[in-house]
Design brief:
6 helices; Beta Polymerase, domain 2; single chain; 5-stranded mixed beta sheet; alpha+beta; 5 strands
Length: about 150
Amino acid sequence: MKNKEVYDNIINMLNENKFKFFLGGSRRFGYERPDSDFDIIIHKAAPVNLDIFTEIGVQIVEIEATYYPDADVLLKGENVHIIFVSSQHKFKSLRFMHDKIEKMLKDRPGIIEIVPILRKNGFTGGDIFHLLYHLTYTNKAGHLLP
């Protein structure tokens, strides 16, 4: 199954089951590559049966701790990362961080131009996420905000 088709199946299933979720990572922020995965952050208030993901085409590669702060589990599929967060407070915090990065990139679109350079120098998606978040606390001249 193609990346976009798997992603669409996941989004439809999450909406049907009334999960709280949002898209994160490079696809949200506009610096994705053709092989970029989809990062989907889900608030998990109760245990989730992982079979619901395999039934819609997610091939589970592994389950591990995640690079996102305050997240519980990363379900790695083929070109999709499903990140579960059990704490409502932590879920809101992650959403806030993503919203803040998204706003900064709209206000300062040139920042995206550094991402390919960072990737060539070994920065991971998690490294780039944290760097972008820290940049939200600077002004256009690069000075820390009061």
